[in-house]
Write a structure and sequence with these properties.
Layout (H helix, E strand, L loop, with lengths): L4 H21 L4 H23 L5 H7 L3 H20 L1 H17 L4 H19 L2 H12 L4 H21 L2 H4 L1 H18 L5 H22 L7 H4 L2 H15 L1
Helix pairs in contact: 1-8, 1-10, 2-8, 2-11, 3-11, 4-11, 4-13, 5-6, 6-8, 7-8, 7-10, 11-13
Length: 248
């Protein structure tokens, strides 16, 4: 199978889902759209919990010791958050979303602009921080097949319908993020020639699960956590696993 086909299918499902969601959303009252967003927040919280529990993975504990996994996830979020905030990743992602909205829809009012940017940011984070994004893209590049990305594409398509019903065309714009993130990971898989060790992948999965908790809190309007600022934590996690393993 051609490497990258999984990402192309994923982009197609996001675009189709977003289009259906926009067409559906215009016919729904605001209260109904808010309920849909709340439901997605709860489901995102469920997915986040199933990912975060990877901190208890046996391979990770064998690699770094029983007490280290929690500290690795904590250290990843702290270091990643510091790096991300210094790089102003959240504001850069929001600015990019605003620029896209301006290019695609012209002089929309501030409320519509905020809706577009929020849809772009939240959709990009949900579609690109889960374990299937990382493992599926790497395996696609390694030539192990795109089955995981096909599953992710189906899930993202349904999520895009629900997101777009609330946030509009900003969800469709997140397809660009999917191309960049999953395409880069697929190319990385081609370069690596082998998949990440299970312990390193478990640390990334657990850290990504907590990032999705932040996304869920935004969807539920509990707190506007700058999740994009925390994204470097996904790169820090395997580095800390390697350091802890050397000391173990």
């Amino acid at each position: 199978m051609i490497p990258g086909i999984g990402t192309l299918v994923n982009v197609a499902t996001v675009l189709v889902g977003a289009t259906l969601g926009v067409l559906l959303g215009n016919r729904l009252p605001t209260r109904t759209r808010d309920v849909v967003t709340d439901a997605l927040g709860l489901v995102t919280l469920l997915i986040a919990g199933t990912s975060a529990i990877a901190v208890l993975d046996d391979d990770l504990a064998d690699k770094v010791g029983d007490s280290a996994p929690m500290l690795i996830v904590l250290g990843s979020l702290l270091v990643g958050g510091i790096v991300g905030s210094l790089l102003r990743l959240e504001s850069r992602v929001e600015s990019f979303g605003g620029w896209l909205q301006g290019r695609l829809s012209g002089g929309a009012d501030s409320a519509e602009r905020h809706r577009f940017v929020e849809g772009f940011v939240i959709s990009s984070l949900v579609f690109c921080t889960g374990p299937l994004t990382i493992l599926g893209s790497l395996n696609d590049g390694l030539g192990n097949g795109a089955d995981q990305l096909f599953l992710k594409a189906a899930l993202d398509g349904f999520a895009a319908i629900a997101f777009a019903a609330s946030f509009g065309w900003g969800v469709a714009a997140s397809a660009l993020t999917v191309v960049v993130v999953q395409g880069s990971l697929t190319l990385l898989g081609l370069a690596l020639g082998d998949v990440l060790p299970d312990a390193h992948l478990a640390a990334i999965t657990a850290t990504g699960g907590l990032l999705l908790v932040g996304v869920a809190l935004r969807l539920l309007r509990v707190r506007e956590i700058p999740v994009a600022d925390l994204l470097p934590a996904l790169l820090v996690a395997p580095i800390l696993v390697q350091c802890a393993a050397a000391l173990h």
